[in-house]
Amino acid sequence: PFQLLEIIRKEDVALRAILTTHHHWDHARGNEELARLCPGLRVYGADERIGALTHKVTHDQELTFGAIRVRCLFTPCHTSGHMCYFMWEDGSPDAPALFSGDTLFVGGCGKFFEGTAAQMYANLTQILGALPKETKVFCGHECTVRNLKFALKVEPENEAVKKKLAWAKQRDDEDLPTVPSTLQEEFLYNPFLRVTEEPLRKFTGKTDPVEVLRTLRTEKDNFKKPKEQPNPQAMLAFDWGLFSPFLEKK
């Protein structure tokens, strides 16, 4: 929360509300501290497990913050109370934005912790996939390179995947973000949005889109990065205790 408050100070703006996608600590951990430091702060979300929640929102509910309009999009699966937020300004030339939390990632989707493949299929096709194609996708994590490595395993001949992966690796090397993408782009390289395509059916051995998605998620869960071999000299140094003086607690 203190990093966020420092950004707010630099931008010379006031924090009035928080839109929380779901209750997991890496998305909501700072809520209580921010609420303590900013009296009157409104915290929006769809799950009672969200810390410091003050306003529970529902699917298709619309909120307004100055010129910014927000549509709440309920996408249960990663958690049973996951909410995405679609934002736009009337008359603005800028593309609308989707804050997709852990439902939709650049090149991937969230794990099915508290839901089903059928739910995620509905989330990705009927709810998020139906948004304007120019929508910018701001997801909750930077896991683009790993996602696209899996996408390349699924579709080794997909030129859009190859191009996006090369770009993402370059960004990663330069410590630059790969977020946002656009919804239009996601349909070209994100396997979880391409479950009706023939290469996806071939890879999963399934034809029903929900079954393709279910199998794809299982394959992704089991997808491992090649393990880097530890340096032999470093391992010997650990065995001999040479690093011990540097590792002791103060």
Characterize the structure shown.
This protein has 250 residues and is an alpha/beta fold. It folds into two domains: 1-56, no CATH class; 58-224, Ribonuclease Z/Hydroxyacylglutathione hydrolase-like (Metallo-beta-lactamase, Chain A), CATH 3.60.15.10. The chain has helices spanning 2-11, 25-28, 31-37, 117-127, 144-154, 159-173, 183-189, 198-204, 209-221, 232-239, 244-247, and strands spanning 17-19, 42-45, 55-56, 62-65, 68-74, 83-89, 97-101, 104-105, 108-109, 136-139, 181-182. The strands form three sheets. It has a six-stranded mixed sheet. The chain has a three-stranded parallel sheet with strand order 1-2-3, with no helix packed on it. A two-stranded antiparallel sheet has the order 8-9. It is globular and about 55 Å long.
